[in-house]
Design brief:
By secondary structure, this protein is mainly α. It is 52% helix and 9% strand. It folds into 2 domains: 2-164, Ribonuclease iii, N-terminal Endonuclease Domain, Chain A; 169-287, Double Stranded RNA Binding Domain (2-Layer Sandwich), CATH 3.30.160.20. Strands 1-2-3 form a 3-stranded antiparallel β-sheet.
């Protein structure tokens, strides 16, 4: 009887969430308000509804649950791989980048409550996915949550492609700075959210003293990775599929054109399109 009370969707929004969960997650929610909270961004809160909670506590829980589930999955999926490879693969699969891709695939924004423009903060849908896993764990338990997460991973991710990706954008950006003799710095600031609901970090990437990228996250690491990815896109260090772009050609500083042509002649490319040097082989992931 108690379960039946929670299982009953009492509003159009809750009925919509219930239908979405059945179709997308393959589960029928018992505690509908819990899922609704998981899909409620803090921007949707209002002064006249102090009883409502945003999804950040559930996001914290979902983050921990996701780490455990993905870790177990990878341990059994790659029986011959070492700890280093498994750690990097887990970091990739639970990264904000991959969670945002997953959120887009399942169209989570269709059932979210938020008062910011769609796509304005690209981390919001990915954060909601973590909160949703937290709600699922509280409602259905670990085993059901594990089955759902693995189902989503295998349905929406190409693990072979993820293996080849290098999503440690901060390390790549710092390495690029050393090779190009550019000064790359990360500047962090911390903001406390209203009502003591937590804190958020903002990271800024400065290249030779000029801001080239920004990122936000509930940890310093997440904020720095987001900022590094933003800077990498603006500096054109990565192709859309995650590969490297034309290093040194599109990112050169004013006055460096002659030096670039000289280096091209030394390589024997003549600066012709299609004859650019290939990216280095032997990624660490493949050696683990």
């Amino acid at each position: 009887m108690f379960a039946a009370f929670f299982n009953r969707a009492t509003s159009p929004e809750e009925r919509r969430i219930r239908a979405w969960c059945r179709k997308t997650l393959g589960v029928t929610p018992r505690n509908i308000p819990l899922y609704r909270q998981a899909l409620r961004h803090r921007s949707a809160l209002s002064e006249d509804r102090p009883d409502l909670e945003d999804n950040e506590r559930l996001e914290f829980l979902g983050d921990a649950i996701l780490d455990t589930i993905v870790g177990q999955f990878l341990y059994h999926h790659y029986p011959d791989k070492g700890e280093g490879f498994l750690t990097r693969m887990r970091s990739k699969l639970v990264s904000r980048h991959q969670l945002s891709i997953l959120a887009k695939h399942v169209e989570i924004e269709r059932v979210m409550e938020l008062n910011i423009g769609r796509g304005q903060d690209t981390s919001v849908p990915g954060n909601a996915m973590e909160a949703l896993f937290g709600a699922l764990y509280l409602d259905k338990g670990f085993d059901r949550t594990k089955a759902t997460v693995i189902k989503l991973i295998t349905a929406h991710f190409d693990l072979k492609a993820v293996e080849q990706e290098d999503r440690d954008s901060k390390s790549r950006l710092l390495e690029w700075g050393q090779k190009q003799h550019r000064k790359v710095e990360f500047v962090l600031s911390e903001q406390h959210e209203r009502g003591g609901r937590g804190r958020q970090f903002t990271a800024e990437v400065q290249v030779d003293g000029k801001t080239c990228g920004t990122g936000k996250g509930h940890s310093k690491k997440k904020a720095e990775q987001e900022a590094a990815r933003d800077a990498s896109r603006k500096l054109r260090l990565h192709m859309p599929d995650g590969g490297e772009a034309n290093k040194g050609e599109r990112t050169r500083r004013p006055g460096s054109r002659s030096r670039q042509r000289t280096s091209e002649r030394r390589r024997g490319t003549g600066g012709q399109p299609g004859n650019r040097p290939r990216a280095s082989k032997g990624r660490k992931d493949d050696q683990a």
